[in-house]
From TrEMBL:
Ranges for domain UBA: 365-405, 437-477, 492-532
Segments forming domain Ubiquitin-like: 86-163
UniProt feature, compositional bias: Basic and acidic residues: 569-583
One Pfam family in the UniProt entry: SASH1_Homeodomain
Protein name in the entry: NEDD8 ultimate buster 1
Classification via CDD domains: UBA, UBA1_NUB1_like, Ubl_NUB1
Matching SUPFAM superfamilies: UBA-like, Ubiquitin-like
SMART domains the UniProt entry points to: UBA
Residue spans of biased composition, Low complexity class: 544-567
Region spans: Disordered: 544-594
Organism from which the protein derives: Aplysia californica (California sea hare)
Amino acid sequence: MDSPGRDLLFTKLRERLNADKIKLWLPPYTQDGSSEKGEVPEMLISQYSEEFKFPQLEVAQALEELRVRALTRLEERAKFQAEGLATLRVKLTCQLPTERSPRKLVPVECSLDIRGSDLKELIAAKFDVPQSLLKLICRGRVIADEKTLSNQGVKNGSDLMAMCMTVSEANVIQKDSEFAQVKRTRRAAELLSNRGDDDEHFDVQIADQKGQPINLPKDEKKALTVAMTLHEKGRSALKEKKVTLALPLLLEADEEFSKCRAEILKTVDNYAILCLDVVWCYFLLKNLEQLPDAESRLHKSEECFKLSYGEQMERLTAIKGGTGTEQALFMRLYLLQGIVAFHQGQLSQARNLLGRAQFVLSLLHVDPDKLNEVMLMGFTEREARLGLRAKNGNIQQAVDHIMKQKQEKEEINQRVKKEWKQRVRAKKLGKTRSGQLVNMEHYDTLVAMEFSRGAAAEALKQADNNFDAALEVLNQQPQLRLLPDPEKQPMQITEASLEQVVAMGFPLEMARQALENSNGDLLRTINLMLERAGSLAASTTAHSAVSSGSSTSNSSSTSSSSSCSTETPEEKKERLRKEKEELDSLVQDINRDENDHLDLTLTEEREALGVYQGLLDSVAV
C-alpha cells in the first residue's frame, strides 16, 4: 500500500477506535497479562474494510500495528516515569543507501536534560552518519546544540526530523572552517542589518508589494532585514533543490519574524510566503510527522495573505492592477491544505481544497504559443509568463502590463538609488546640533553659490539645516572657507609632511591638526599656517567642539563597533575587508527581482495534485 493511502487508513482507524472506545492493548485484542496478540473479531475487520474501502488484509495488518504501537507507548511512558529516560522517534531524511535509509520512525532513548549536541551525537551513531551533517527539527524548530532538550520543548514521545545534508552541501557549509552555512548566513545577515541606510556599499531597503520603500524604526528594520535575508537564502537553496539546507534557513527566518510586531507583517507578504515555503519543504522531505505544525503554518499563511492582499484580494488589485501572478501562491496553499486534510482523514475538506487548487491551476495555465510570441518581442520567459498570468492570457494586455511594470520599477529604482547616494554623501558631512543629517539640497545650493564644501557643511550643521541661518553663519565666519572638503577622501598624513610643518617652528599637535584640516595637503597646510599663524588653535578648537557634539548625537549608530575602538588602522581595515567578503557572499545569490517568488512553473505542484486526487478517487468520502 502506498504511504499516503496507508497513512489515511491509520488515521481513519484511530478515529473509529477512539469513537468505539476500543482499546487494542487490552483483552481480547491482547492476551491477558502479556503483550501477545489476542483475537480481533472478523466482523470488526469486515466492518472497517467495507466502511473505509480498504482490503480486509490491510485493515487487519493496520490494526495489529496500532496494537503494537499502543503497547510500546505504554512501556515507554512507564520507563520515563521510573527511570527518566525519554523515547524520541526520529525520521532520517537524506540520500543514504536503501539498506541504511529507514522509512519508519526509529526510537532513540535519552534524558531530556542532555544538550542538542548530545542528542545529535546519539542519532549520528544510530544511523551511522557524520554528526556534522545533521540538523534536528522538532515541532517546527531547529534544535540548538547548546541548550537542553527540555528547554527546547522536546518531550517524551516527541517526533523528530533528522536532516542529513549531502556531502556536496557539507562542503559548502564547512567553508572557511565554519560549522554550518546557517550560522555564517545569520552572521552576515546581522552584519547587513547593522549597516545604515547610508552605507557606501550596500543599500538595505524593505519595500511593499509595489516596490516602494517602507520607513521603519531602526530596531524593527533590523529584525526584518535579518528575517528576510535568511528567507531569501533559504529560497535560493530551495530553488536549487537543496531542501535539507533550505529548511534550517527558513526556520531561522521564522524565529526572526516572530520578533516583529504583527502590524509590520501586515504590510508585507513575506511571512505568509515563508510559512508556505516551510510546509513545502516538509512535503518535499516526505516528513508527514510535522502535520500539526504544517496545519498551523498554513493557517498563518492564509491569514497573512488576507491581511496583506485583502479578503477578496482588493488591496492587491489596487496596488498591482491584477492578481493573476499571486494566484500561484494560492494554488500551492490550497494544494498543501488539501494534502494536510487528506492525511488527517478529512476527505471531504481535502476534496474541496484540491478542487480549488485544480481550478486555480487551470487559470494559471500559459499557452506555450502565446508564451513564445511574447518572448519573441524581447521579453524574458519569466516576464512573459508572469505577464500572461496577470492578464489571463491576453497577449496585448500582457505586453502593456510588462512594460508598465518595468517602467514603474525603473522609476522607483532610480529614486531609491538617488536617495541612497544622498544619504551616503550626507553621512560624510556629519550631523547638525539636533542630530539630523545635513540637508543635501541646501548643501548643494550653497556649493552652487560658490561657498566651499567644508564651509557649506559646517554652516548647515551650526544652523541646524536652516538655510537662511546658514547664510548668516557663512557671512559672520569667513574662516569656515578654510575647512577641508568633507566629501573628499582624506589624504594620508605622512611623517615626512608632519616633520616639514614642525620644522617651520609650529608645535607638533598644531601641525597635525593643520594637516588634518587640509586633508593631508602639504602645500595647503603651509599656506594656512602662514596666513593664520598664531590664531590657528582658536578656530580649530571651535570646529572640534562642533565635531564632538556631532559624534555624541551619533553614538547610537556607532555603538555596534565600539568593541573595536582599540583596533589599529591595519586591524580595522582587515576587519572591514572580511566583513565585506561575508556580505558579498551573502548577497551574490539573493534575487533582486521582487516577483521572483511568483514565477512558479507549478510542475511539482501539478504532479502532487494528480497523486492526491487519484488517492481521493480510490477511497470513499
